[in-house]
């Protein structure tokens, strides 16, 4: 006869099985294993979970078309503080769903509607209800939902002039423990390195402007072209260089450092999406790359 397990050992095995099963159900176990992209061949849309936030929320991308020129649009870097940038991104997704001839055959467009889903959740919540824009912390007043769950400003967590502490307006903000220390920044980085888009547009608010990106080597020529194209079509103010205060570790600067033109589009307010204006800007950039 085989020797039987002692009762304490049986209890221990049962507990281990229960814990592993619970972790699997909760999505903690194997969280780094992302599912394969889902391709809708009829509508030419590819849906992908490109990463997960600190609290486990999905960071998603929607890709339309299969042309050689690829443009990426990103909303919600600052979560609920700039929730209208997320709304604009989803509005553009709806537009592409309803207008399948919007893209020429040589173009491909990807949209990451919210790069900071935990920050968005802080403001929108499970039931879509909004909470006041400002909350108090120990020493400073920070706008709700701007940071991730570790209170890191994700647009200071990229590898361009990165420092552990950066600036937002007159406040010092955490930029993480190192460049790409935050899973949300890693998701954007990995998507870019995998897909190598020709240009990237980030939607923010509320400066009513289009900013060019730069890092150690300055502004890329194509960056100025798309900044001016988007600004002229949309009516936003073109600004070659942001000099109101020092910014380190921004996503746009990191893209410039690896040779990818990127611009920041700042909506006029924290509530409006100015869709027609931005659609005109989008068309201008698509036309620019379609002619190259």
Can you walk through the features of this model?
The structure is a single chain. The protein has 292 residues and is α/β, with parallel strands linked by helices. It has helices spanning 7-26, 83-98, 117-124, 183-195, 221-234, 251-257, 275-290; strands at 38-40, 45-52, 58-64, 69-74, 107-112, 134-136, 141-143, 165-168, 171-174, 199-205, 209-212, 237-239, 262-267. A 9-stranded mixed β-sheet has the order 1-2-3-5-4-10-13-11-12, sandwiched between helices. The chain has a two-stranded antiparallel ribbon with strand order 6-7. The chain has a two-stranded antiparallel ribbon with strand order 8-9. Helix 5 (221-234) packs antiparallel against helix 7 (275-290). The longest helix is centred in the N-terminal third of the chain and has 20 residues, at 7-26. The radius of gyration is 21 Å and the shape is globular.
Short recap of the structure:
With 292 residues, the chain is an alpha/beta fold.
| Secondary-structure element series | HEEEEHEHEEEEHEEHEHEH
Annotation, overall tally of beta strands? 13
Strand order of the largest sheet: 1-2-3-5-4-10-13-11-12
How far the N terminus sits from the C terminus, by CA atoms, comes to 78 Å
Instruction: Give helix % range.
Output: 25-40%
Q: What about the largest sheet?
A: 9 strands, mixed
Please state the average pLDDT score: 86
CATH class of the largest domain: Alpha Beta
> What general form does the structure show?
globular
Structural class: alpha/beta
What is the CATH topology classification name of the largest domain? Aminopeptidase
Please tell me the CATH architecture of the largest domain by its name: 3-Layer(aba) Sandwich
């Amino acid at each position: 006869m085989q020797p039987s397990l002692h009762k304490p050992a049986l209890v221990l095995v049962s507990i281990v099985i229960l814990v592993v099963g619970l972790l699997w159900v909760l999505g903690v176990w194997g969280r780094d294993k992302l599912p394969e992209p889902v391709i809708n061949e009829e509508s030419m849309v590819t849906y992908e979970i490109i990463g997960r936030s600190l609290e486990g929320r999905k960071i998603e991308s929607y890709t339309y078309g299969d042309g050689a020129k690829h443009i990426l649009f990103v909303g919600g870097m600052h979560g609920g503080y700039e929730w209208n940038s997320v709304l604009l991104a989803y509005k553009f997704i709806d537009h592409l769903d309803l207008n399948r001839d919007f893209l020429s055959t040589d173009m491909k467009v990807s949209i990451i509607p919210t790069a900071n889903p935990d920050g968005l959740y802080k403001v929108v919540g499970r039931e879509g209800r909004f909470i006041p824009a400002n909350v108090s912390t120990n020493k400073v007043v920070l706008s709700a939902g701007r940071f991730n769950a570790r209170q890191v400003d994700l647009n200071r967590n990229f590898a361009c002039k990165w420092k552990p502490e950066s600036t937002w307006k007159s406040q010092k903000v955490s930029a993480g423990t190192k460049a790409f220390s935050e899973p949300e920044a890693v998701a954007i980085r990995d998507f870019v390195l995998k897909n190598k888009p020709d240009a990237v547009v980030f939607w923010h608010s509320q400066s009513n402007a289009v900013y060019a990106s730069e890092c150690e080597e300055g502004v890329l020529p194509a960056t100025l072209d798309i900044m001016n194209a988007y600004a002229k079509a949309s009516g936003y103010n073109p600004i070659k260089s942001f000099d109101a205060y020092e910014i380190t570790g921004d996503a746009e600067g990191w893209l410039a450092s690896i040779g990818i033109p990127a611009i920041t589009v700042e909506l006029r307010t924290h509530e409006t999406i100015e869709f027609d204006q931005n659609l005109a800007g989008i068309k201008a950039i698509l036309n620019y790359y379609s002619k190259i």
